[in-house]
Amino acid sequence: MPWKDPKHAQAYFILYRLEHLEEIRRYDRERDQLPHRRQAREEYARTHRASIRRQRLKAYHSSPEIRARACANAKRWRKHNPARHLELTREWEREKRRKRPYYARIRVENRRARHYGAPGELTEAQVVAKFRAQRWRCALCGKRKKLEIHHIRPLKKGGSNWIRNVQGVCHRCNRT
């Protein structure tokens, strides 16, 4: 009997699965459609959501084939659901703006600095730390308003884009 020896048993089962692959897949698909199996699968997915997500991300980043298939699926979904895609994109942008209000502005300032050939690059952490050090008050008038990035020595006049040349000022003071 081949299954008494573990190595022979393993080889036997591998060969059996290869020879009867379609039968086994059909049986598994039919079995998975049973109501109690579907409920168990959904319950597992709910309770292990984080680990399933980690496994999928790991597979996505480790395999170009999986990444290509995921991108193709996403593209197909966007094509068939343009209204829902637009809604989700707007929702994502609103949430990003709420969580990281200075992100877009910092990117613009860094691009302006590159345009003028100014040295230095701002990061979101630096800007938030600077505003926090100012206690979220305008550096010029001292009022507690939404702060904007202001270069002490303007980029046009040879100022740098390092954090030491930046201060937070309110909209009114930044325009005057």
How many strand segments? Answer: 2
Number of contiguous helices:
9
Output the helix-strand order.
HHHHHHHHEEH
* Beta-strand content: 5-15%
Describe this protein's structure.
There is one protein chain. This protein has helices spanning about 5-20, 20-30, 35-45, 50-60, 65-80, 80-100, 105-115, 125-135, 170-175; strands spanning about 145-150, 165-170. It has about 180 residues and is mainly α. Strands 1-2 form a two-stranded antiparallel sheet. Helix 4 (about 50-60) crosses helix 5 (about 65-80). The radius of gyration is 29 Å and the shape is elongated. It starts with 5 loop residues before the first helix and ends with a helix. The model has no long low-confidence stretch (mean pLDDT about 90).
